[in-house]
Amino acid sequence: MRHRRTLITLASLATLALAAAPAAAAQPMAADAAGNLLGNASFEEVGPEGLPTGWSPLWASSAAAFSSDDTDASDGERSLRVLDDSAEAGVGLRPEAVAVTAGETYEFSLDLNFASGTLQPTVYFLDASGNRIAQPSSAVSPAPGGWVTETVEVTAPEGAVLAEPLIYSSVGGTADGLIDNVGFTAVVPDVADGVEEDLGEPIGGVTNAGAGYTENAEGRDIGLVVAGGSPSRFSAVDIVTGELLMSQTIEASTLTWAYATTPDRSVYVATSSGEVYVFDPDALTLTLIADKPFGERYFWEGQSNDAGEVFFATYPGGKVVSYDPAADEWHDHGVVVEGNSYVRSIAVDGDYVYAGGGTADAVVVRLDTTTGEKVRIELPAEYRDQEFVYDLSVAGDLLFARPTPSTDVLVYSLTEQAWVDTIPSGVGLEVSPAVRTVDSGTERTEVLIPKIGGGMIAYDVDTYERRDVSIDLGGASARGWSLQEVDLDGFPGESLVTATSKAVFHVWNPQTGETRSMRSDADPTPFLIRSLGTGPDGDVWAGGYASPPGIARVDAESGASELLSGPGQVEGMVAHGDDLVIGTYPGSWLYTYDTTQPWDNGTNPPQRVSIGHGQDRPVAMASAGDVVAIGSVPDYGQLGGALTLFDPETGDMEVFEELVADQTIISLAYRDGLIYGGTGIWGGLGIDPSTTEGQLFVFDPASGEVTFQTVPVPGEENVSGLTFDADGNLWGMTANELFRFDPQTLEVVERQRYFDVDDSAAYWTTRELFWHDGKLVGQTASRLFEIDPETLEMTVVQTGVQNLAIDRLGSYYYNRGGTLYRWIPAQVGPECEQTVTGTHEGRLDITSGTTCLTDAEVDGPVTVSGGASIVVTDSAITGPLRADGATDVILRGAEVTGPVRIDGSTGEVVIAGSTIVGPLFCAGNATPPTDEGQSNTVDGPTRGQCAHL
């Protein structure tokens, strides 16, 4: 039987439309045999209508095209005959759905014996609701003359939980033949030998992007926060006592901004990944009611009107959408401003919704929800160059708007339809509701606005006067506001309640001016690890969405992590001499830490410096001689990143904007005075790319010019990782393909494709490539891999991972969400030419070759002379061990009672997990001795190269 393999991908031509057949919500089908997920895969069981059991026609008209056949079979006694004699329509047969895992690859195989025609194997991928989200397909035309096996591979896309592998004939062709032994099996990749260690969650805590407020039927005041992370964690707490009332994990989301309380005390909570939940304060339940309504996958803000209808601001459609709980209906109010992918803020006032947008056009739009009319409210002229209208609030007859990056709060009179005031140095996200205050001795109607640097002003909505009040959020933004009667002495009537991003609730009473803060017991969560890097000493550093801001240092020996107060969202970092240079978002800030001195935020690292020049995320870094080369992503709504040459000693920098037109520099490497850069087509969020392929360029710092550029892999959008090998070849990685570039001839001389993942979403980090220990080690397509540079054979180490760093001991670090993992490759030593086991009495002299002591006991001295090697594994030596000019000296789990001296070895020196009763001395060895991360016990002085073991 002949065998042919094809790759079919999500990008493959599919003649079926996604709406061609209704999505199935079937339960997973029982597997027919080991590895094969399909039941009745050889069609031996036949139902009353002549079709194989467990299989059904794709359309009713398809039933006549399929029949059981007992004249020939490749497996068993029966096969399936297909006869499609129409070139105008296809026919199809579907199995019951089988369970799949997103990101995993599956092999779809069929034995075919065709007289003529074409078959088009197709796989429907379904989400948890049974909706079809992808359908890769590929045409096969087996030559007549006997049975042949056709095999195709597909990768389950994000969100897929079920699959239906279809037997389908093409619309434009005919088919006449037999089908048998259909298989759908998970592809198990070759994996490297080693051990994976879970190092826990180095960055964790509570950071809530927003907050919600309600009360239960008994009047208990309840605050709602979602600790952003991976996964995020929803908590309902008692505002007055801080007690945790309930909590629930939100797996798919990392942040939640939008909370809207309706008149019936329900709170609608919408996440940054498109889920919308409703919280019941009496039952203390959180229930999912929608997932990505109208395709909107990011909700920024939510607010309810008096009738209980809830309105949301969305991305990437730049829409206002609403939900009516009474009718259980969603409504799409459409794009607010053409060209804007963001509606960042909304404020609801009766039938009107005010929407603040960006990034192409920072403007306020008034939406009439009864007619759909949209009216632009232009910002004052001096603010029309802003990126966003980030915050909006209506209080009384005033609309408050905060454009960014400005820190001014603009005041608009709804009655005069004009901008009437500007309040400098305000902190978002909202101003409070207007309340009657008497604490100053004068009755006023005021709103509260937090100030940059701390403090709070009360703003009179009638006179526009301002005064300071006692409540102080410490310079933090107010996470929503509410008017509630709190059970606290000195707080009569209704009080204003808000929260900070640390789930700390603040209450201020407008009658007495009293204020109080309550830290809650909201559940923490691991924060998403955004980046990994290796420091000058070979320890690994992890950056993420820490709150309070910080960065974690991970000890290469123990794997223990320490969270250090300092930089916030770290986008990139690199070792440069004894310094670790760290780049953060937003604002493209740079920090320099001298690793020879203790960490002391503000002193070491000292005050940060900003790249400026419209840059926002420093994502690519390389030590480049006396400077650090930095590639950065521009601000929201902008294309064209920059290359910065930064001197950590002086803080000086030289910025080269848009070296490659409309593209961002996302990978860098340095050699022989030249900087090599890889670009991606995406700029800041909120703008579509204008180019289609990632570039490789060569930059000469001496001239400040790009001397060469090319598209190394046609069709790929991003050149994600770059590294030099020991011979000076430049290797690069895209999402799917490896390439080798000759810096002398300026040619791409080798390419190899491994994956076929969709690279059409904006990204800037999590893909890396390193030259390590004679091989390429990298991470892309959610896989950690090793590649042999001679054969280009790939070995998959782990799947479902992001980021990559390699410590001084050769261990690989990566993350799954907020959890950090370490892979310790299996130790490969020299091949044993002689093995000693059991008891060996007397002296042991090793003069040539490799001798292995495995579960041995040597009662006497051991010597290893020039060119010979020793490998001691779980063995004891009673007497001294001396190696002089040896090749490899490897002790793992050894116990030596006597002095150990290792001089002038030309290969590896390893002392790991061993006990030495006596002194330990190492000198002149070509490779520094290592303990492979397993500590030793030495009962005596340690000197020379082994002093650190």
From TrEMBL:
Q: Which GO terms describe its molecular function?
A: hydrolase activity, acting on glycosyl bonds
Region: Disordered; residue ranges are 927-949
Ranges for domain CBM-cenC come to 36-156
Q: Does the keyword Signal apply?
A: yes
Q: Which UniProt keywords apply?
A: Hydrolase, Signal
What taxonomic lineage is listed for the species of origin?
Bacteria, Bacillati, Actinomycetota, Actinomycetes, Micrococcales
Residues spanning the signal sequence: 1-25
Any idea what this protein is called? CBM-cenC domain-containing protein
- Kindly give the PANTHER family that the UniProt entry links to this protein: CELL SURFACE PROTEIN, OUTER MEMBRANE PROTEIN ASSEMBLY FACTOR BAMB
Source species, domain of life:
Bacteria
Matches recorded under Pfam families: CBM_4_9
